[in-house]
Amino acid sequence: MLDLSAAFDTINHKTLLARLEPHFGITEKPLAWMEAYLSDCFQTVCIDVELSKPVHMTYS
């Protein structure tokens, strides 16, 4: 089995969105949904009961 989960760990959100339409034909509502999904993303880490400060994500 091929695990591709780490293959997309470092894709810049702006680059991804810019390539979805010309390379994959994703337009209008699906493109707007992807943009909304990737906009203002923050990540936190919880270890036991300690929660880290949110970090703005521009790559994922």
Automatic annotation (TrEMBL):
Its domain of life? Eukaryota
Name this polypeptide is given:
Reverse transcriptase
